[in-house]
Write a structure and sequence with these properties.
By secondary structure, the chain is mainly alpha-helical. It has 15 helices and no strands. It starts with a helix and ends in a 13-residue tail after the last helix.
């Protein structure tokens, strides 16, 4: 499932767009949020499909080598470890994965240069050379190879990032998140995983779906009040000089702490400090931490924060 942190980030991105536009309705903004999350899930499947495409390209190379006029011994008895990789085979056969790909018409057919480029880069890498030569050949080693392939081949690939930007405006910041989702999904696969194994769902449960809807609305409705509260504790700063994204992060953190009684204050604070590190600077995260600490203390003293459940009352 998509983690709560990524869901928080998606809400933040949509709030940014909503406030910048100045005329979006709540209804349309909520639709944009749902679409953004669905596109993230689509990219997850899309990149898994890319791994399959690379393996099929490798298989084509093997078959072409066999058809040479004078094939070598290696051409006739090739090392098929990569194309027989058990993780790749799992996704090729998995019913849920293939149904999603077919339903959403996912294909890389219009981008042959990407698969070819990734394949060429892969077979020249020490990762691939060592994997193909390794005497150990089991599910665990196949899994480790695919995870390393994702981390080393897909990250910081300019052509891949360019293509994703062209295909969807929602994918500009999603690649890193999705690569982590892929790694976690593959790491959980077992030798008994088969074509009927369920893959990562879009949401963990209905609570997550309600969480993002409520967080979006509360963050937008309370924005002006929260902005004034932030200004109260930034006396040495003009509110207009504080980075807009920093204000949005603090606004959303305040909305979450006030309106979600089942989420501990420390959890919310830590989450938004980490988000600030990603979307702002290290100094911003320290600044945000200091301001939110003061704001939360004020809200507690004025009974604006009421946490329910054992371990939530601080």
């Amino acid at each position: 499932m998509i983690s709560r942190r990524i869901l928080r980030i998606k809400v933040l991105q949509i709030i940014y767009a909503h406030l910048k536009s100045g005329n979006e309705s709540f209804e349309n903004t909520e639709k944009q949020l749902q679409l953004s999350i669905q596109k993230l899930y689509e990219l997850f499947h899309y990149l898994l499909l890319l791994i399959i495409d690379i393996s099929e390209l490798a298989e084509e190379k093997i078959e072409l080598a066999k058809q040479k006029r004078i094939p070598t011994a290696e051409d006739l008895a090739p090392n098929t470890r990569f194309i027989d990789n058990k993780i790749i085979s799992f996704f090729k056969e998995n019913i849920q994965f293939n149904e999603y790909v077919k339903k959403n018409k996912l294909t890389w057919v219009n981008y042959p240069e990407l698969s070819k480029g990734l394949y060429r880069k892969l077979i020249k890498s020490d990762l691939y050379i060592n994997y193909m030569a390794d005497e150990k050949n089991d599910f665990t080693h196949d899994k480790k190879f695919i995870i390393s392939m994702i981390e080393n081949l897909f990250a910081d690939n300019e052509l891949l990032e360019q293509i994703l930007e062209e295909k969807s405006i929602y994918w500009n910041d999603d690649l890193e998140f999705v690569l982590n989702m892929m790694v976690k999904t593959i790491a959980k696969l077992k030798t008994r995983s088969n074509r009927d194994t369920a893959l990562m769902p879009l949401y963990k449960n209905d609570d997550d779906k309600q969480f993002i809807r409520d967080l979006l609305r509360k963050s937008i409705i309370d924005y002006e009040d929260n902005r004034e509260l932030i200004h109260k504790y930034t006396k040495n700063w003009e509110i207009d000089r504080i980075a807009f994204m920093d204000i949005l992060i603090m606004n959303q953190a305040i909305a979450e702490v006030v309106h979600f009684p089942s989420i501990p204050v420390k959890v919310s604070l830590n989450e938004y400090i980490e988000i600030a590190k990603y979307y702002s600077t290290e100094k911003s995260s320290i600044f945000i931490n200091g301001i939110l600490d003061k704001v939360f203390n004020y809200l507690k003293k004025n009974d604006k924060i009421n946490k329910l459940g054992r371990g939530l009352v601080e």
